[in-house]
C-alpha cells in the first residue's frame, strides 16, 4: 500500500486515513526521535558548508576553472535523503547533488579535489567533473560511476535494484544487508528536465513491472538550463509517475528540511520493507548558476530569482532553529565554523598535486583472468556441433557453474528461446528468474548491466539483431564503456552482450546490417566475432569471465552452416573447460613456405563470413594463401597480422561491412604504416558496396556483398603485382 502524505508547513506531516492508528503512533515516535535537534543542527551546518563552498568557488573562478554546478537551493532535500541511508544502500546522485555527498559524509576537501581535477580525487583521479562521484566502501552507500548525460543514470541505477532483487531471489550471500538485517534500497536522483527523456520511461516501466526496490528522487527547480518547465513539458514527474500503476509517488516541498526528512524517511523505510518502486517529486528553488559557465543572469529575470530566493532552505531552517529555542550565538558559531573549515579545506585542495600524465591510459579495462587457451578444443568422442548450439551450450555450462549468471533480452525466455533458438531450453532449465524476456527496450537491456554488474551479478544480455543495437548505443557509449576508466577501475562493467549480425539469404535492410565499425569506435568495450563453433564456445566462456563489457557478434548465416560453403563453421564441441582468450587470431589456412619464399603468396585478413569467402577464393590459388581469422576485433591480434603480412608482402583485408571508412580500411592503413618496408603491393581492401543498407532482393544482396569470386579477382590481381 502506498504511503499517502499531505504536506503542510506545520510541524507535523499528517498521514491520511489509510495510515493505520498503530502506524500513526509509530510515525510520531519516529518523528520525535528521528527529528532530534542534533539532526537539524547537522543539516544546518552542512547547508552552511555547501553555501560557503559555492561562494568560495565563485570568489576563486580562476582556480576553479573546470565547469561545475553547485547544490544552492537543493540542499534540504539532498541532505534529508543522504541521512536516511545505510552503507548497504546504493545511491546515484546527479551533478547538482553536492549537498547529498556532504550528507553522506564526504568532506568538502574530497569534493574539492574533484572540482579541481586533482590526483587525489578519490572518485575519478582528476578525470571527471565536480559532483560526479563513484564509491565502493563499507562505511557509506555504494555509488556507481555517474556520467553527465542527464537522465542516463536512471537505467543503470534501476539495474542495481534489479541485481539486488536477483541476489535476493537466489539467496546469494553477495546480498549485503544492514547491521540489523535491513534490506538495501537504491536511490536514483535526477533533475526535473531529465524526466522527459525516453530512457527514463524504459527504466520506470521495468522497475514497476518487476517491483524493484528503487526510489526515483526528482529535484524539480522548474528549469532545464534556460528552458522553463512550462515551455517544454506537459506534466511534472509526479503526474508522469501516475501513468505507471504500481509506482508509488509523493510530492513534497524539497526546500523544507523537516518535511523532506520526514518524507524520505518514510519512503526509504517503505521501500526497504515493501520492495517496490517509489517516485518522490521535490519542489526546490534554483539559487546558483546552472553551471559555472552558464550564468543565471544570462536567462533568468530578477523577478524569477527573487521568487526562488524566498525558498532558500538555509534561512528557512535557521528560522526554524530559532523558533525551537536554539541560541542564536550557537547558530552563529556553526556558520563561522563551517566557513573557516571550508576555507581551510579549499586551500588544502588547491595545494594538492596534479595527476601524473603518465597515468592517462590506466584503467581502460580491468585485467581478465583468461590469458591463454585452455581445455580441449577437439576432445575425442565429442560430436560436431553447429555454431548456434556452441553458443547455447556455452551459456548452459556457464549458468550451471555460476549462479550469478542470468540471461535476458527480447524473446530469449520461455516459449521461444530466441528468434534463432539460440537460447532454447534455457528458461525451462534455469527458471524464469534466470532467463527471461524483456520488453523492446534495447537501452534498458544494455544499460541495466552496469547496475547488475556493480552488485556482483553477471548478466548476459541479447540485442535481437545488430540493426537494432542503436537504441542501446547511448548506454554503451555513455555508461558501459567509460565506467571502468572514469571510476579508476572501481566499476568495470562485467557483461556479455550477444548480437546476432550479418547478411544472408534475403534478410533485408533491417535484419542484415553490420555494425562492427560503429562499435569499434567506442573505446572501453571488447568486440568478438567468431566464425566457427569451437571458437564461439571458447570465446563465449572467455567473454563471460572477462570483467569488462564484451560484445559477441554472432553471424546468423553461420549459425546453422546452411549457407553453401560454410560447412566448416561446424566443429567438434570443445570440452567444458575450454577457453579461448580474446585478442588471439587464428591462421586458418597457411600458405606453402616455398610459395612464400618465391613471392607467390598473399595473406587475407578477415573475420565472420569473410573467412568462408576467403576459403572459397583460396581454392583457386593452392598453397598461395594465408587466411587469418581475427576472431576478436578488439583487442586485435596485431602481432599475428603484422608478422604474416611481412612474410608475404601482399595482403587483402576483407569485410562484410560497407567498405568506406570501415574498420577494414582503418586496419589496412595501420598495416601499410607498420609493414611499409615489407610490402610489395598496396594493401587491398574488399568490403560491401557503399550503399546505405543491404537490399532485400537476393540478387541485389549478392551484388552488394563480397563473395568468393570477388575475393579471387582481387587475389589474382594482387599476386601478379
Ligand atoms: C543527454 C544530455 N543532453 C543535454 C545535456 C546538457 N545539459 C546539462 S544539464 C541540462 C539541463 C538539465 O536540467 P535538470 O535535469 O532539470 O537539472 P538541473 O540542472 O535543473 O538541476 C542539460 C540540457 C546533458 N548533460 N545530457
The first-to-last residue Cα distance is 79 Å
The small-molecule ligands in this entry are: thiamine diphosphate
Strand numbers in spatial order across the main sheet: 12-11-13-14-16-15-21
Helix-strand makeup class = alpha/beta
Oligomeric state of this protein: single chain
Helical proportion? Answer: 40-55%
> In total, how many beta strands?
23
Beta-strand share of residues: 5-15%
Uncertain runs with pLDDT below 50, 5 residues or more?
Answer: 1-30
Radius of gyration: 29 Å
| Helix count, DSSP H or I runs of 4 or more residues | 27
Specify the overall morphology.
Answer: elongated
Estimate the mean pLDDT confidence. Answer: 94
| Biggest sheet character | 7 strands, mixed
Please describe the topology of this protein:
Elements: E1 5-6, E2 14-15, H1 21-34, H2 37-59, H3 75-82, E3 90-92, H4 98-104, H5 108-115, H6 154-169, E4 186-191, H7 198-210, E5 214-220, E6 223-224, E7 227-228, H8 229-232, H9 237-241, E8 248-253, H10 257-274, E9 278-283, H11 296-299, H12 302-309, H13 313-323, H14 328-351, E10 384-385, H15 387-401, E11 405-409, H16 426-430, E12 435-437, H17 442-454, E13 458-462, H18 470-486, E14 495-501, H19 516-520, E15 526-528, H20 533-545, E16 549-555, H21 556-559, E17 571-572, E18 586-589, H22 593-597, E19 602-606, H23 610-618, E20 625-629, E21 632-634, H24 638-648, E22 651-658, H25 663-674, E23 684-688, H26 698-704, H27 708-720
Parallel strand pairs: 3-4, 4-5, 5-9, 8-9, 11-12, 11-13, 13-14, 14-16, 15-16, 19-20, 19-22, 22-23
Antiparallel strand pairs: 1-2, 6-7, 10-17, 15-21, 18-20
Bound molecules: thiamine diphosphate.
Amino acid at each position: 500500500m502506498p504511503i499517502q502524505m499531505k504536506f503542510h508547513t506545520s510541524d507535523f506531516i499528517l498521514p491520511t486515513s489509510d495510515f493505520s492508528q498503530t502506524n500513526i503512533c509509530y510515525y510520531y515516535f519516529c518523528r520525535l526521535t528521528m527529528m532530534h535537534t542534533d539532526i537539524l543542527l547537522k543539516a544546518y551546518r552542512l547547508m552552511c558548508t555547501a553555501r560557503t563552498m559555492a561562494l568560495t568557488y565563485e570568489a576563486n573562478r580562476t582556480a576553479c576553472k573546470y565547469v561545475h554546478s553547485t547544490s544552492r537551493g537543493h540542499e534540504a532535500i539532498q541532505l534529508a535523503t543522504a541521512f536516511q541511508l545505510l552503507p548497504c544502500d546504493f545511491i546515484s546522485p546527479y551533478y547538482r547533488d553536492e549537498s547529498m555527498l556532504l550528507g553522506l559524509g564526504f568532506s568538502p576537501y574530497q569534493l574539492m579535489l574533484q572540482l579541481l581535477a586533482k590526483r587525489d580525487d578519490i572518485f575519478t583521479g582528476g578525470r571527471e567533473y565536480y559532483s560526479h562521484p563513484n564509491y565502493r566502501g563499507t562505511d557509506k552507500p555504494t555509488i556507481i560511476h555517474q556520467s553527465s548525460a542527464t537522465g542516463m543514470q536512471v537505467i543503470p541505477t534501476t539495474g542495481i535494484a534489479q541485481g539486488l532483487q536477483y541476489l535476493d531471489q537466489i539467496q546469494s550471500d553477495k546480498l549485503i544487508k544492514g547491521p540489523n538485517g535491513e534490506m538495501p534500497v537504491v536511490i536514483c536522483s535526477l533533475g526535473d528536465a531529465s524526466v522527459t527523456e525516453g530512457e527514463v520511461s524504459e527504466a520506470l516501466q521495468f522497475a514497476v513491472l518487476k517491483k524493484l526496490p528503487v526510489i526515483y528522487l526528482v529535484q524539480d527547480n522548474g528549469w532545464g538550463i534556460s528552458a522553463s518547465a512550462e515551455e517544454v513539458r506537459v506534466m511534472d514527474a509526479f503526474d508522469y509517475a501516475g501513468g505507471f500503476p504500481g509506482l508509488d509517488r509523493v510530492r513534497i516541498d524539497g526546500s523544507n528540511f523537516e518535511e523532506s526528512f520526514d518524507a524520505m524517511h518514510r519512503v526509504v523505510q517503505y521501500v526497504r520493507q515493501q520492495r517496490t518502486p517509489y517516485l518522490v517529486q521535490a519542489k526546490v528553488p534554483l539559487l546558483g548558476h546552472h553551471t559555472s559557465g552558464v550564468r543565471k543572469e544570462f536567462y533568468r529575470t530578477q523577478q524569477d530569482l527573487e521568487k526562488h530566493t524566498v525558498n532558500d532552505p538555509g534561512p528557512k531552517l535557521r528560522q526554524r532553529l530559532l523558533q525551537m529555542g536554539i541560541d542564536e550565538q550557537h547558530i552563529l558559531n556553526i556558520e563561522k565554523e563551517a566557513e573557516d573549515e571550508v576555507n581551510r579545506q579549499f586551500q588544502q585542495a588547491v595545494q594538492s598535486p596534479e595527476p601524473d600524465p603518465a597515468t592517462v591510459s590506466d584503467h581502460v579495462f580491468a585485467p581478465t583472468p583468461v590469458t591463454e587457451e585452455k581445455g580441449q578444443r577437439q576432445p575425442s568422442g565429442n560430436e560436431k556441433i553447429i555454431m548456434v548450439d556452441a553458443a547455447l551450450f556455452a551459456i548452459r555450462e556457464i549458468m550451471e557453474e555460476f549462479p550469478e549468471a542470468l540471461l535476458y533480452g527480447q524473446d530469449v525466455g520461455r516459449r521461444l528461446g530466441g528468434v534463432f533458438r539460440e537460447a532454447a531450453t534455457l528458461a525451462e532449465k534455469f527458471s524464469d528468474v534466470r532467463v527471461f524476456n524483456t520488453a523492446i527496450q534495447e537501452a534498458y537491456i544494455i544499460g541495466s548491466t552496469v547496475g547488475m554488474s556493480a552488485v556482483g551479478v553477471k548478466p548476459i544480455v541479447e540485442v535481437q539483431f545488430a540493426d537494432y543495437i542503436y537504441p542501446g548505443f547511448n548506454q554503451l557509449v555513455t555508461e558501459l564503456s567509460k565506467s571502468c576508466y572514469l571510476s579508476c577501475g572501481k566499476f568495470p562493467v562485467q557483461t556479455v552482450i550477444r548480437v546476432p549480425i550479418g547478411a544472408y539469404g534475403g534478410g533485408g535492410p533491417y535484419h542484415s546490417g553490420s555494425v562492427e565499425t560503429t562499435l569499434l569506435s567506442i573505446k572501453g568495450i571488447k568486440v568478438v566475432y567468431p566464425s566457427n563453433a569451437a571458437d564461439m564456445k571458447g570465446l563465449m566462456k572467455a567473454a563471460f569471465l572477462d570483467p569488462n563489457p564484451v560484445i559477441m557478434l554472432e553471424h546468423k548465416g553461420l549459425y546453422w552452416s546452411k549457407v553453401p560453403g560454410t560447412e566448416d563453421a561446424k566443429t567438434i564441441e570443445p570440452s567444458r573447460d575450454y577457453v579461448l582468450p580474446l585478442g588471439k587470431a587464428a591462421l586458418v589456412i597457411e600458405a606453402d613456405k616455398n610459395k612464400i619464399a618465391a613471392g607467390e603468396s598473399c595473406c587475407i585478413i578477415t573475420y565472420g563470413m569473410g573467412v568462408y569467402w576467403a576459403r572459397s577464393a583460396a581454392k583457386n590459388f593452392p598453397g598461395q594463401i594465408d587466411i587469418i581469422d581475427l576472431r576478436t576485433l578488439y583487442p586485435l591480434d596485431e602481432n599475428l597480422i603484422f608478422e604474416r603480412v611481412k612474410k608475404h608482402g601482399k595482403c587483402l583485408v576483407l569485410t562484410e561491412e560497407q567498405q568506406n571508412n570501415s574498420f577494414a580500411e582503418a586496419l589496412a592503413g595501420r598495416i601499410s604504416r607498420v609493414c611499409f618496408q615489407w610490402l610489395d603491393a598496396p594493401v587491398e581492401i574488399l568490403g560491401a558496396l557503399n550503399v546505405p543498407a543491404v537490399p532485400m532482393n537476393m540478387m541485389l544482396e549478392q551484388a552488394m556483398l563480397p563473395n568468393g569470386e570477388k575475393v579471387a579477382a582481387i587475389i589474382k590481381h594482387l599476386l601478379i603485382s
